[in-house]
């Protein structure tokens, strides 16, 4: 009743913020995931948090899962843990998203072993990293990890995604789910992304940059690359989502004062709940192309800047230029 009253009285943007921060109890759970036998699925950032919860649920429903992460021993430990819990053995997908060469190697190793990919969960991310922290190629580490490398990975893996779409007996499209955040709406920038601040150089070094703005750019970017890839990959369904405000390792770069941490405890949810929305987008038995999911497994509305044709065009052209040495010719 309260949600109905607020949806009728609050401005759309404010209600959207409210319902993502204080979502109702889920009506769709991991028990609703269909049988995933013969489906090969990659989950990046699956060695902890909602990535591990996502992988666990997929294994419980008989998917062939690849655990994405940059630490080999941690991946192996998670594979052992999930084997004990589910009776299923996942495979390692060793990738460092802060290094394009690692992304390229991981994609080509996968394509050497597998011919089809039913789903890719672009789940890995970094939040509020120190501004001086750059990727191996000199980009803002948040934007490269969260956006650029996932765009590159989805592009390099397209042959396997496309092959699944054309040849699976379920007659369904392969899916890619891009994990975004409600933080895409929490910062002020007219167009959504300041491209001048995404790469090391004089302008970036001489500008007083807020790391949360950089994180916001990357979360705008997650939804925009979903739009771009839906246009580029007609046989693959791309979607994006805000998984929720969660208790995960994503907060490792943040320092929250005691009183704020106390109040934050009332709106931080378990990571197992956070996996529901991306699991829904990646497994529900209906097409999810272009959807923006919100907690818990509901359809929502992304920040209006993500649908701006100019921003979509600018980011696509920027990615094509910056990734020219890695994208297929």
From TrEMBL:
<protein>
    <recommendedName>
        <fullName>NAD(P)-binding protein</fullName>
    </recommendedName>
</protein>
<comment type="similarity">
    <text>Belongs to the short-chain dehydrogenases/reductases (SDR) family.</text>
</comment>
<keyword id="KW-0521">NADP</keyword>
<dbReference type="Pfam" id="PF00106">
    <property type="entry name" value="adh_short"/>
</dbReference>
<dbReference type="InterPro" id="IPR002347">
    <property type="entry name" value="SDR_fam"/>
</dbReference>
<dbReference type="InterPro" id="IPR036291">
    <property type="entry name" value="NAD(P)-bd_dom_sf"/>
</dbReference>
<dbReference type="GO" id="GO:0016491">
    <property type="term" value="F:oxidoreductase activity"/>
</dbReference>
<keyword id="KW-0560">Oxidoreductase</keyword>
